[in-house]
Every structure is written in structure tokens, then in C-alpha cells.
Amino acid sequence: MAAMNEQKVRASHILVKHKESRRLASWKDKDGKELKQRTVKQADEILMGYLKTIQSSNDPISKFHEIASVYSDCSSANADPAGDLGNFSFEEMQKPFSEATFGLKVGEITGAVVHTASGSHLIMRTKLKPTQVRASHILVKHQKSRNPVSRNIANNGEDGSKLDGKTIKTRTEEEADKILLEW
Q1: pLDDT digits (tens, 9 = 90+) for 142-158
Q2: CA dist 64 to 19, 55, 77, 143, 154, Å?
Q3: Is 118 a catalytic residue?
Q4: What gap in Å lies between CA 17 and CA 76, rounded to an integer?
Q5: 60-71 and 40-55 helices cross at what angle (nearest 10)?
Q6: Which listed residue (42, 57, 94, 145) is catalytic?
Q7: pTM for this structure?
Q8: Which has more confidence, 74 or 147?
Q9: Are 103 and 114 in contact (CB under 8 A)?
Q10: Do 145 and 168 contact (CB within 8 A), yes or no?
């Protein structure tokens, strides 16, 4: 069993809302006509039917996402993969949802329905998404650059070595620094 004090986990879920859900609408039932008629017991029975289908599949993970894409009342049904909630900490989700998720191993699916104020859920813990860092930079080449030729043709002379009338091969590091600081 996973420790509850882990920083982040990732999960996918299938949500079936019912008349006791805190928000009586979904992406597929905008007016909540069906949801307002569905009992908690009916929502749970629907999910247990999905669970049987998932467990009898040759590829339970794919089947989980397939069912989420068609039947989940959460807008995460449109995520890639369907039902994916991304990485989250324990505090970011409702307590019963976090307790169930943090109690699963990667690839495990809850064996019982999990109830929150949002509705009834089946939850599958998945691998964490790697942290993504986006970076950009400005490069001003100089005489000590590993490759003193600019790849930006608009900045090159015919021999690929001129930038702003100054030859990269003769530009000092100090001159390159000055150019950067002027930007």
C-alpha cells in the first residue's frame, strides 16, 4: 500500500453523478435531467458493472480509459487518456478520493465505489507525469564558441560567420556579454 504522505500521485477516474451530487450537471448532461433522477445506489450499480467489464478485459487499463471516455460524467472524459486527472497532492482532492488513490499502487483500480460530494467514482492510479520545464534562451556566439557559425541564416554573411557586421570568429566574450545586456 502506498504511503499517504507521498508528495503527488496521478489518477484517472470514472465519475457517475447522482441526485445527491453537489453539481447536478455534466459535460454530457448539461441540464442534469438524468442525474437528478439517478440514486446513489443506481450510480454505484452502474460503476460496479463497469468494473466487471474492466476486470474481464484482456487490457483493463485501456478498457478503463475507453469507458471513461464515453460514460464518465467528469469533463476529464475528454482528457488524454480519458479520465486522467493529472498529478495531484493529497490536499488537492476531496478526502475520500485522495485516501482511495493514495492507497492504490500504480495500475490498481479501486475494488469498490468511492463516494465524494461530486458523486460516485472508480479510480485507477497511474504513473506520475514527469515534471515539465520550459526554457528559452538567447545565444550570442563569440570567438570561443564551440561552433562559431550561426544557424540563423538571416544573421549570417555568405560564409555563415557574420552577425551585425561583426565576425563571430573575432567577437570576444565581453562583446557578446555587452550585446546580451543591451537587450
Answers
A1: 777 766 666 555 555 55
A2: 24, 9, 11, 57, 51
A3: yes
A4: 14
A5: 150
A6: 94
A7: 0.68
A8: 74
A9: no
A10: yes
